[in-house]
Design goal:
This protein is mainly β. The protein contains 1 helix and 8 strands, in the order αββββββββ. An 8-stranded antiparallel β-barrel has the order 1-2-3-4-5-6-7-8.
Length: 130
């Protein structure tokens, strides 16, 4: 078989690959402590044409596992890609037990959120664990 027949499909595949893993929102992320000291580990994954995230683990502000009924709960919902590369959807806030409008942007190993409700907007940064 001709080498160029093998090389051409490989080049096409590499050029059509998704963004680099460091800027891809799929993975395991850690939130900073909320006002109650709760830290969540959230696994993000594709859900159809959007990104969703589910709580896998909860910890206290010192890094120790903390039992919680939040484990298994979906935290990020319907995060749709925007033309500027950010994602827009909803985030469930455990402390207030409410859904807020959220915009997220991944830069390297940091996922930046802007969460807004009728009272204003709050910026939060999560760190990639895996």
């Amino acid at each position: 078989m001709n080498f160029s027949k093998l090389l051409f499909p490989l080049v096409i595949y590499l050029l059509s690959a998704p963004p680099a893993a460091a800027d891809w929102p799929v993975g395991l992320w850690q939130s900073p402590p909320d006002t109650a000291g709760l830290v969540v580990h959230v696994r993000t994954k594709p859900c159809g044409r959007s990104i969703c995230g589910q709580i896998e683990r909860t910890k206290n502000r010192f890094g120790y596992d903390t039992p919680s009924s939040f484990v298994g709960r979906r935290m990020l919902m319907d995060m749709q890609i925007q033309p500027d590369g950010s994602y827009q959807g909803q985030m469930w806030e455990p402390h207030g037990n409410r859904l807020v409008a959220s915009r997220m942007q991944v830069q390297g190993n940091v996922m930046q959120f802007q969460n807004c409700d009728s009272g204003g907007c709050v910026n939060v940064d999560w760190t990639r664990l895996r």
